[in-house]
Design brief:
The chain is α+β, with helices and mostly antiparallel strands. The protein has 16 helices and 20 strands.
Length: 499
């Protein structure tokens, strides 16, 4: 469900704005001055909506529209082709997303949700509150680039731009351009298509540019940040299993998890996933140290059927199982509760006693931590410090530590700068791509409505000569597209907030 504090804060803020606006408009002495101030600054207020419009950027748009006529023609014609393809593709994508949502509702399979290309985003629910700045900045940038495309395309087709503006609806920011309708109606349907498709085309280009920057970031940051030498710890959740004197600290470089080498965040995630799926590995211990140093514990069976031999209050000892070579039985395991750090420091991994004999100068046996079914014992290598020893469910370690691939070459560099750039690029890719898809849908009040109308006028004039019939065809197509988009939003919102 939506967090109550966030909902209360948003409602209180809008109520305060609306109350102040109402009081000023109802005041006999301040009403005229207040309304004049709003008009002079291009501001308009309504419930849960504030809008600002200006003509300051008109010269910039006009300059961009005059850069290179031929190049701009090819650019916006490419956008026209992309817009038509995107219109069809967006419908296919929405149909598939709706099918996946319905499947998830009936099967309750979490893997279906992770496969969805489009998801409804609700701040504070499936969007962490510490990511709101990224989200709104990327959304605003995507909206501005979208409207920049419309404005430049319109001026190139000799359609006047009255102004550019921004708005906030509830909590979502956006942008818009005000085109002169009379000029827009005079140009041909093909010219209209170039104008209407320019927004989604620019969103697509921005998405590709952000994606390219994301992949080339190691190259751009190479002079000041290195990669490939391990995963740098930038945050450790306080009180988690990775926190503490012998845990991980900000600035540590993780180079391995057991025998799995870690050169970056991708390896960290891959290694943890591998360790959680495979059985617990053992450690080679010299046979000579078996009897004098091991405190044999009395094993007992846990509720899940596994064995333990240590006290529940022990923080430094761990129960190990092994096959005693001096025992007459070759099948029955023995158990010992021993100091875990002393046991595994400097030892190699093994599966059977044979693995230890092949790599050891003296006699050695393979001892294995006796843990619950999903629990794993993991040695985390972060030189020059000693190993961090983790006992628990591997995904918990993944959630407890935030890492980055970028290691600063100089001490004065901030650890979070590459993370900021990476995260912002990812949000731009997601949101700009989503705007390109959603605005391509043939739906009322979106770019898709005008794209579809212009497309029908450009293609069906010789087939359907009656203009009213073409408008009727367009109306039913828009109705179907609107219903499809509304169903995706409604069910997606229910799935996000109801669980």
């Amino acid at each position: 469900m939506i967090p109550v504090p966030l909902l209360v804060f948003v409602m209180a803020a809008w109520c305060a704005v609306y109350l102040a606006d109402t009081l000023l408009r109802s005041s006999a002495t301040r009403r005229i001055g207040y309304e004049s101030w709003l008009a002079s600054h291009g501001l308009a207020l309504s419930p849960f909506h504030v809008r600002w419009q200006t003509t300051v950027f008109n010269r910039l748009f006009a300059y961009c529209a005059r850069i290179n006529s031929r190049a701009l023609y090819l650019w916006f014609t490419s956008g026209l082709v992309f817009g038509i393809v995107a219109m069809v593709g967006s419908v296919v994508l929405l149909v598939r997303t709706l099918q996946q949502t319905l499947t998830q509702m009936t099967t309750n399979n979490p893997h279906v949700a992770s496969q969805q290309a489009l998801q409804v985003v609700v701040p504070g629910v499936n969007l962490p509150t510490n990511q709101l700045a990224y989200f709104f900045s990327a959304l605003l940038l995507s909206g501005v680039i979208h409207e920049l495309g419309h404005a430049v395309a319109a001026l190139r087709e000799q359609v006047r731009v009255n102004g550019f503006g921004m708005f906030v609806f509830v909590v979502y920011p956006g942008a818009f351009v005000d085109l002169f309708t009379s000029h827009l109606n005079l140009v041909s349907p093909t010219q209209q298509l170039r104008i209407f498709c320019a927004g989604v085309w620019h969103n697509f280009v921005l998405c590709v540019a952000a994606l390219a920057l994301l992949f080339l970031l190691p190259v751009f940051l190479f002079p000041v940040y290195s990669t490939g030498g391990g995963a740098l710890v930038i945050e450790v959740v306080q009180g988690s299993a990775a926190d503490g004197p012998r845990g991980l600290s900000v600035g540590d470089i993780v180079t391995g998890l057991e025998d799995c080498a870690v050169t970056g965040v991708e390896d960290w995630n891959r290694c943890l996933s591998h360790l959680s799926r495979t059985p617990q590995t053992g450690y080679c211990v010299p046979t000579s140290s078996l009897q004098p140093s091991w405190a044999h514990g009395r094993p007992y069976r846990r509720l899940d059927g596994t064995m333990d031999c240590c006290s529940n209050n022990s923080l430094t000892d761990l129960c190990f199982s092994f096959m005693n070579p001096q025992s007459k039985s070759s099948v029955e395991k023995e158990y010992a509760c021993v100091p875990v750090r002393k046991m595994v420091t400097g030892t190699r991994l093994c599966r059977t006693d044979g693995d230890c004999g092949a790599h050891s100068h003296g006699a050695a046996i393979c001892v294995t931590p006796s843990l619950e079914n999903q629990t794993r014992f993991i040695r985390v290598t972060h030189p020059p410090n000693t190993h961090m020893l983790f006992v628990g469910y591997p995904p918990h370690l993944q959630y407890a530590v935030s890492l980055t691939n970028f290691v600063p070459r100089f001490g004065f560099l901030h650890l979070d700068l590459p993370v900021f750039l990476e995260t912002f690029c990812k949000y731009v890719v997601s949101l700009s791509g989503a705007l390109a898809v959603v605005n391509s849908v043939p739906c009322f009040a979106l770019d898709g409505q005008w794209m579809l109308s212009a497309l029908l006028e450009a293609t069906l004039v010789s087939v359907v000569t009656d203009r009213q019939k073409r408008e009727l065809i367009g109306f039913f197509l828009l109705l179907a597209g609107s219903a499809l988009l509304a169903a995706n939003v409604a069910l997606g919102l229910w799935m996000v907030t109801a669980r």
